Amino acid sequence: MTISTKGRYALRIMLDLAGHIGETVKLRDIASRQEISGKYMEQIIAVLNKAGYVRSIRGAQGGYQLVKAPEDYTVGMILRLTEGTLAPVECLSEHALPCERVDKCATVEVYRRIYAAVNDVIDSMTLQDLADIEHDKTVGNRK
Questions:
Q1: Contact assessment for residue 75 and residue 83, using Cβ atoms and an 8 Å cutoff
Q2: What is the pTM of this model?
């Protein structure tokens, strides 16, 4: 399983917005801070907006805001939105066709454990947790 740039950038966009609660943030400002192409960011923000994770504010002072508090978004929510399944093998994905080997397949147990571990991590970490980690790393680097 590899998380694509779309998933990684979506997390960075959401994290950037989490750092500006109460503000309306312009895409070009996020793009500049996060070093993401503006065109690519527009595609990702459209997905986040359609899912109701962010809201668009129009006008001269327009931009984007998180719809909910950072602690209400898990990393898993954001990655599943942008990546689809995070299953390490096709037979464990949500819409997989039934596998005739599943009852005798020993290796599927490895993949189930990997998938469970990944889900445990991404579903237990929130955007607020990432914001806290980023803050600690930023403050730590100033010393």
A1: no
A2: 0.90
